[in-house]
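Collaborator request, handled under Task 6.
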Amino acid sequence: MNKAIALIITIGAFIGVFSCSSTTDANGDKKEKYKVPAVDNTNYGKLETAYFASGCFWAVEGIFDSLKGVKEAESGYSGGNTKNPTYREVSNETTGHAETVAVHYDPAIISYATLLEVYFASQDPTQVNGQGPDHGDSYRSVIFYTNAEEQKLANDYKNNLTASGKYKKPIVVQIVPFKAFYKAEDYHQNYDQHHADEPYVASVSIPRIERAQAMFPKLLK
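Structure tokens returned to the collaborator:
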């Protein structure tokens, strides 16, 4: 076999294994390794919901799910025009949707500003249409604001981060009005907890969660 062809095949196989969209569309019998606290005894008050996208939603869900004041984080789709999209449709980049996480939180325990801090710190906000090995419009970074206050806080945070000079490249996180959220298929919820042995989860998703948790130890449940 021609060496060039063999190299292309090898690279293609590597990308196929180590990408969010390469996994099966059904539940598998996987040994659980990674877990957020199994019991959350928090007495939650009135909840609000924030919507964030930054790459594969499995890790984003895990990051926010581990924070004090977050009752639940759900994986889903937002930002496109297709109603009730499927994972396959979103992965094929035909819907305009981004993989998004709905963060249901108690603002008396954790503020929207703190959620923004975790959001920006847990990704590369300069990567266009993707995070890490995941590339495509469905992996773009987006903050979907639901009111004027969220819009101002998000824009102020992005502008201050740009002014800080922390990043040499432009911050490409989009800040757009929220329209609709479609919850992803059941097998996507808490995916990393149930599929820790999968190559992508073990090498990309869980390390990303752990890096975020290491940056904010006082915020963890």
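The cover message to the collaborator said: "The helical segments are 3-17, 57-65, 87-91, 112-121, 148-164, 191-194, 199-215. The chain has a mean pLDDT of 88. Please let us know whether this matches your experimental observations."
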